[in-house]
Structure formats: structure tokens, C-alpha cells
Amino acid sequence: MDSTPAAWRAADDFLADTLVGHDPALEAALAAQRAAGMPEIEVAPVAGKLLNLLVRISGAARVLEIGTLGGYSTIWMARGVGEQGRVVTIEAEAAHAAVARASIDAAGVGDRVDIRIGRGADVLPTLVGGFDLVFIDADKESNTLYLDWAARLGHPGTVVIVDNIGRDGEIVNDASPDSKVVGTRDGLQMLGEDPRFDATALQTVGIKGWDGFAIAVVV
């Protein structure tokens, strides 16, 4: 089979059907997001399952998410922390947060999720540290700010995941005028140079196109 966006999507659909399956609560969260006219930039089902597994593998009891959107990834991680765990998620748009709140509650994990409304730069300084896993999936221009706070609010062993690092391969273009590419490149360079992190990154293809994620541990 030729490597094309259509083939990537077909393979992603096969993996999701085989390894993730259908989930009424998650599908309802996506439907609510679509009905509200929110951007279709949530993580793919296979990536949501990966977040859930990383939370469980790391034994994370306190999770910080930067970028709630419609709550799809939040639900995945809230399930991972278990009944005694907690997820703090930050969303800049109050309307998005309202949709997420309803979907998270409907999924039965509302008591585990604290949604903070506001820009990350304003909300992050108000949080109490000790997070075991941090998922960064917000405006890419602020990735270095979010990474700094991930280290400050985490502890040695905290897992940090940064989404959307592929940027259709534009990360190799050091002259890109795209602020999202610049922010992504700056974040990756920070992960490589800042002694607080040990990191790697993977390119991916699938329903999100040519994308990828970075994963790090706070040392």
C-alpha cells in the first residue's frame, strides 16, 4: 500500500477499532464538541488510549493537562488515575470548558476533574505542585512556558508529554514564519538542553496527518 494520508487514516481506523473499540461516553464527548462548533483538534482515539496507558504505567495520581478543549483527552486520563486520583485541566475558553464539564460529568469521572478557566500563563502560577504527569496540548507558541511550569510543578520522575510536535515536517525549517512551528521548535530545543528534562520525540502519521509527540521525564 502506498504511504498516503488516506492510507494513514485507514490504518489508524483499523488500530482504533482493534485496540480501542467503541466507547459511548467518549463518542458523546466528541459529538458535543462538534455540535458546539469547536475545532476538531482533539487527540486521535489511539493517542487517547496511549495517554490512559501512560497514566496507568507511571502510576500517576495527580495529572495536569494544559488545553482541555472538549474534554476528550481529559476523560481518558481521568479514567487512568482511578477513583482516588485527580486531573487538573486548564482551558482558556470558558465556552469550551462548559462543554468539557458536561461531557466529563456524563462520562462518570467529574469528581476526579478540576477545570481551571484562564490562560495557562495566569493559571499555572496558582497551582500547587506535585503532579505526576503533565500533558501539554495548548497554544504551541507557549510550549517553553508550559514546559518550565511542568518542571516546577512536577518532581523527579514526573512524565511530561507534548503533543503535535511533527508540524508536517516543518520542524526542520529554522526559518519558518509559522509561530506554531517556531514555538514547537523552541520547546523541543528546551527539552534537549534544559537539565531538568530527559526526553525523546516520535513522528506519527494517521488521522491527524503528519504529526508526533515528545515524551520526557523530569530528572
SSE topology:
Elements (H helix, E strand, L loop, with lengths): L4 H16 L3 H12 L9 H14 L3 E5 L5 H10 L4 E6 L2 H13 L6 E5 L2 H4 L9 E4 L6 H11 L5 E5 L15 H15 L3 E10 L2 E10 L1
Parallel strand pairs: 1-2, 1-4, 2-3, 4-5
Antiparallel strand pairs: 5-7, 6-7
Overview of this protein structure:
A 7-stranded mixed beta sheet has the order 3-2-1-4-5-7-6, sandwiched between helices. It is an alpha/beta fold. The radius of gyration is 17 Å and the shape is globular. A hairpin with a 2-residue loop joins strand 6 and strand 7 (209-218). It has 8 helices and 7 strands, in the order H-H-H-E-H-E-H-E-H-E-H-E-H-E-E. The chain has helices at residues 5-20, 24-35, 45-58, 72-81, 94-106, 120-123, 143-153, 179-193; strands at residues 62-66, 86-91, 113-117, 133-136, 159-163, 197-206, 209-218. Helix content is 43%, strand content 21%.
Features:
7-stranded mixed sheet, 219 residues, 7 strands, alpha/beta, 43% helix, single chain, 8 helices
